Amino acid sequence: MKSSHEIDYEIFGEEMQYVSIELDPNETAIAEAGSFMMMDHDIEMATIFGDGSASQSGGLFGKLMSAGKRLLTGESLFMTAYTNVSHGKRKVAFASPYPGKIIPVDLHAYNGKIVCQKDAFLCAAKGVAVGIEFQRRLGTGLFGGEGFIMQKLEGDGMSFIHAGGHVFHRDLQPNEILRIDTGCLVGFTQNIRYDIEMIRGIRNKIFGGEGFFYATLTGPGRVWIQTLPVSRLAARILSFATTTRKEEGSILGGLGNLLDGDGR
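RE: above sequence
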């Protein structure tokens, strides 16, 4: 028998998706702060320490310790629980924070655990534990960058993670190796071995523009990959906002203003 609440869901949209979760009476979904979009009448919201799972049953101190670890992943101490208090089915919806895809993950199908990037978790059925996963190898810890401190989702219920751009998965066979940019890694199943490898060749390091390190993933297991890490998107937007490009000089700029009706 599953310990997590069993929820039904439907995902809508293409680039800016949202997930609609259908709750039976007394069923609960948990979500990160800021992901809420809309909900039906008779759904009650409650702010809770951490994720409210059974793993936080060690009294107030245990709840504080478990929730406090979430600060290391850049998340809040608190999460929000949405409970259907009516006698019929009700729906609550959560939206993706930036262009990409929402990935539904049935933890029961992956032996109760997956590891994902620290900002990937969106929402889940109550009973799913959201914790942190430290990479144990020294090289991974020192040079892993975005992949050093990750989230782990544990339990037997449905959870939903979000990633940027196009999202796909690769199923690795035993001892099969995949090398990947740490920012493009969304998550992987618990049997995957994760490590950091230095890029070979001095010219590649200095002129390659891809950093000195990448992640190596060794099977067996499933790996989820994104084409547009939010850090890459933010860096590109920042570069456009802080530099003056030649094609946006005074001549084209003035012409643009004239066409927009701003010319005097």
